[in-house]
Specification:
By secondary structure, this protein is of the alpha/beta class. The chain has 17 helices and 24 strands.
Amino acid sequence: MATPEPPLDDSRRLTGPSVYFAEPGAALETGIGAPVPQALLEGWKQRIERARAALGWPGGPVVVRGHLSGASLAFAAPGDQLYTATEINEWAWLATLAEAGMPTGAPMSQPGHAPPGDEGAALRVHRLAAAAEALPRLPALREAAQARGLPLLLDDEQLSIGTGTGSLTWDNPALPRVGEVPWDDLHAIPVALVTGSNGKTTTVRLLTAMARAHGWSTAHSCTDGIYLDGALIDEGDWSGPGGARSLLRNRQAQAAILETARGGLLRRGLGVPRADVAVVTNVSPDHFGEYGIHDLDALARVKLTVARAIDPGGTLVLNADNALLRSHAAAMDAPLAWFSLDDEHALLRQARADGRRSAGVAGGRLRLFDGRQAHDLGAVADMPLTLGGLATHNVQNSAAAALAASCLGVDPDTIRSVLAGFGGSHADNPGRLQRWTLGGGVQAYVDYAHNPDGLGQLLALARQAHDPGGRLHLLLGQAGNRTDEAIADLAATAAAYRPDRVVLKDMEGYMRGRESGAVARLLRASLASHGVADGAVVECLDETDAARLILAGAGPGDSLVLPVHNAANRGRVCDLLDRLQAQGWMPGHPLPE
């Protein structure tokens, strides 16, 4: 007989500012469905406060966020005692359920989980755990760093003060006394955060190019890895707080541009306590159902967590063309700067009137206002990243990066120069809106499009540039952690652009609990319901083989839309396309191995 699971989920540490509050702390998701009775929530809050008092912890936010699947329960706690905080959070919830006569599942094996009804015993265990976890020298170091305006970064193994070239790092068991720190050697470097539903990696790479052209040795993180001056340090998805802290401790870095993804924000919070500028590119439907996020409004709040890192001297850069960001802007304390496809957008006009920065398009040219004067950054159609102006989402990404670079102090001439060249080489922005022109007028596009909005933008661009006599081929897959409804929505978006042929794939590395072929079956059913003929849909689950199948079936004038998500597979596909282009390959001819 299976042992019942405790009625909670996703119990986790929050190591930095989060959607709940600006301090570190702990959060969990209840496991009893919605709505959660108010009496249970009050019982949990009271136990959290009694535990804080018993451990001598300071007060701070205690947050309940109700949602469709239950509630998120979070409270602030000392940053060096977060494992204990998660134990307290779980105990407080289970003890409250037990008091109400509700099932609490199997006894937990962790030492903090004393019998739910014995509060005295539980608090004694928590005190012992907190004392063992605490770093006695941390409070004085934190106070001294704050007094000097220096960022302090703490994780399980290390503590650092300052950032980049102005940082020093110590192992946690060997923290110095305040008087032993060479404070005059420490300082902060310029830091930018970039988040949003789409365009994060492109904006990070473009902003990094601008920072490097400015003369800074620049570190950046994204879903492909962490880099210093364009050289790969470590491959993989480093868009979470671990990647951010790793780069900010690199003593060669003079600036840092950090991709900040939704998953890391919800699991651990921000990896940095402060940044000079934070960009939110857009907010669109994606990743619903995880961590209690079920709608766009909640997702927008998660993305805007980056605002917690912005002090009065920094800037929050927002997309004026995104209705959700406009609606949430009034609640932001951080100074705002806006970008748009229309330089005459009301929010951009107001920003200029207030002496704040903005970036927008006027007469086909990108214009930057630096708070004092306007600068012409060049014709949008001449910027390689925009594919002749067809890629309007990359026009927005260019405006966002230009505006963020200006906030960091990069000269407009430098920004203009980078925009004029970035994207001219496939090495500038690998895996993001790359285009190859092959024999017979075949156009092949490789991109990371992974949600309905991103896929729609990619297909719209391909349709605009499409040869009317050719066919549209699409490689289609989705990550396994999306809901069935979200997977169906992606297929509906694809169907709206009338593809002539769809090849369904698995997303290697993103299966996340689903068996091979399960997502493809959902996609096929949705495509059929939206009018795509069954004979136009082929299943080839290996991503690289699926791309080759599309290429092998291409005819003159065809457009091939290839969202490739696994980094290794993307490298193989791009290498193949490079060879086909160099060899003058013609459709119908064999593909090289």
